[in-house]
Amino acid sequence: MKRVLIAEDEAAIREFEVINLERSGYEVVETDTGEKALEMFDCYNGDFDLAVLDIMLPGIDGIKVCKELRRKSSTIGIILLTAKTQEIDKISGLMFGADDYITKPFSPSELVARVDALYRRVALNMMRLENKFKEEIKFGEFVLNLRNRALKKRGKIIELTQVEFQIMEYFFSNPGTVLSRSQIFHQVWGKSRTGEEKIVDVNIRRLRMKIEDDPSLPKHIITVWGMGYKWEN
Asked: Which of 182, 204, 203, 202 is nearest to 194 (CA)?
């Protein structure tokens, strides 16, 4: 469950946030002071994906809460709610570890869009961190074994060259992210390497022949025209 901590002292605004985030599939834990926000964080053993903090909280203000949450967790996503006149506070908040800020007043769509965007970044980062300690990365019917450097689809081994394996590892570490030909080239062949990036396209075609049910209609290695490629599960 996607869990968000909300700290907002204005009841009407807090209710507005809770309703819209719950409608969007988030579990919301709400409070009206900075002190309670920190207590809630500890009570849940830090098991929050995001925190949405009003800067002007009574007692411990939002910036101090932000600073303390960031000290406790390097992975939680933090959004500050600010007024138009709080430019210095916005900068201070970002310096102390906030990821984003929303200026009041804001619409439901803006709130949800900002929270969704930050949640995707947090979830992706957590997956990358977890994958560093895994022998296998699993996506649907695919299993990439990092120790044996092997790929399975529906339990069957797919023979890959070392270059193809490195491309797949790069895709699996960045699911849903558009990777340019240049990024893939430098990741696999080295940052100091110069050469024709079309070699990336050749290897992508070979990979599609090996992993796609219908290489002419790929469902996993998707071309994003003018940008590059991305992996979809």
From this structure: 182
